[in-house]
Amino acid sequence: MSLLDYFRISKPKSADIAKERLQILVAHERAARNPRPSYLPQLQKELLEVIRKYVNVDQDAISVNFEQDDNQETLELNIVLPDYQQENKTINS
Amino acid sequence: MARIIVVTSGKGGVGKTTTSAAIAMGLAKRGHKTAVIDFDVGLRNLDLIMGCERRVVYDFINVINGEASLNQALIRDKNCNLLYILPASQTRDKDALTLEGVGKVLDELSGDFQYIVCDSPAGIEKGAYLALYYADDAFVVTNPEISSVRDSDRMLGILASKSRRAENNEEPVKEFLLLTRYDPSRVKSGEMLGLDDVQDILSLHLLGIIPESKSVLTASNAGMPVILDEKSEAGQAYEDVVARYLGEDRPHRFIEDKKGFFRKLFGGKS
Ligand SMILES: Nc1ncnc2c1ncn2[C@@H]1O[C@H](COP(=O)(O)OP(=O)(O)O)[C@@H](O)[C@H]1O
Ligand SMILES: [Mg+2]
């Protein structure tokens, strides 16, 4: 450790500690009071209808996830397509 | 149609009543007919800060209950004839205020006034909710201190979800930040959250910084809104706030620690 480093080391300022604690707390509280948007179930239902026009999928083959952090909201859509062969079977039968 | 302003914070003792009195006076002095309403039922204070406590005959609850007309209850300010005060009841409890009752009074005032300032009680319960419900604009009074910033953030959540504008899917309540009891020297030494720290969390439109100032106590002792003390920093800061709210572009003051070495040494007056 150089002499310079020695002088630079100081306790974090108490305002900095306060700010860090606040940022964590506020992010949690914001997430808690903004639960999933209310349109999600309807969106999921309609998406399923559209997809079923083209592919024969199960009710639970589709999942819609909503996530939120400090500065963005993410909507994650997951569709599990059926096996190709299985698909063929259904179409052939 | 009046513009309805709520002065809110969540936390108590941050300067809501001081602010309500100052900005109501500021708006009225600039020629806008203004009413300021004390929503702190049971703990009324606004009349003291405005210096009209001995002229209170009827109050907000009397008007809601039809025991007095609005004209009987409104008190004209002694310094400015465009300013009127509607005091809170000292004896009733908070349940005497109802959403419909408050709406009726604000509606009636709206016809005659340009601005209605609602001085919110502390807390996030019914009283604070009723004060903010009908608001067009919210002045969020915040101290540079951890629990005040947190409560302000919770208040913002309530404004965004429970106000009339939110319920009716109208344009949201406009939110403004007033950072009060600010002490630049303590910010500089790292003991107090600074403007940037608070804005990193709240990111609101800043209406002004009100410095911690002895003149606030002196003004409340005299029953005179501090904005009338044009020599004081707090008075000037509130004057700026009103000007900015009305659309004037003024640089922010009272952010820097101005006390020079000598003033510090000999104890400068704030
Ligand atoms: N800028 C300021 N400088 C110094 N004291 C202040 C300032 N603003 C408010 N105060 C004091 O803080 C206390 C609480 O203020 P008040 O306006 O009654 O807060 P609230 O209505 O939010 O409870 C009062 O004693 C008041 O004089
Ligand atoms: Mg108060």
How many E strands of chain B? 8
What structural class do the secondary elements of chain A suggest?
A: alpha+beta
What would the principal axes of the Cα set say about the shape of chain B? Answer: globular
Lateral strand order in the biggest sheet of chain B: 3-4-2-5-1-6-7-8
Strand content of chain B: 15-25%
The Rg value of chain A, from CA coordinates, equals: 25 Å
The helix/strand series of chain A, from N terminus to C terminus, equals HHHEEH
Largest interface: A-B, 14 and 18 residues
Terminal Cα span of chain A: 77 Å
β-sheet strand percentage of chain A: 15-25%
Strands of chain A, total number: 2
Largest sheet of chain A: 2 strands, antiparallel
Q: Approximately how much helix is present in the residues of chain A?
A: 40-55%
Number of helices of chain A: 4
Largest sheet of chain B: 8 strands, mixed
Please give a structural write-up.
- The complex is a heterodimer of chains A (93) and B (270).
- Chain A has 93 residues and is α+β, with helices and mostly antiparallel strands.
- Helices cover 54% and strands 15% of the residues of chain A.
- Chain A has four helices and two strands, in the order αααββα.
- Chain A has a two-stranded antiparallel ribbon.
- In chain A, strand 1 and strand 2 (73-79) form a beta hairpin.
- Chain A starts with a helix and ends with a helix.
- Chain B has helices at 16-29, 46-50, 60-64, 70-73, 99-110, 126-133, 146-162, 164-167, 184-188, 195-202, 214-222, 233-245, 261-265; strands at residues 3-8, 34-38, 75-76, 83-86, 115-119, 137-142, 174-182, 205-211.
- The relative contact order of chain B is 0.17.
- With 270 residues, chain B is of the alpha/beta class.
- An eight-stranded mixed beta sheet of chain B has the order 3-4-2-5-1-6-7-8, sandwiched between helices.
- The model of chain B has no long low-confidence stretch (mean pLDDT 93).
- Classes of the chains: A alpha+beta (93), B alpha/beta (270).
- Chain A binds chain B through residues 13-16, 18-19, 21-23, 25-26, 29-30, 33, and chain B through 145-146, 149-150, 153-154, 157, 161, 187, 189-194, 197, 200-201.
- The structure holds adenosine-5'-diphosphate and magnesium ion.
- The site of adenosine-5'-diphosphate has 19 residues of chain B, from helix 1, strand 7 and helix 11.
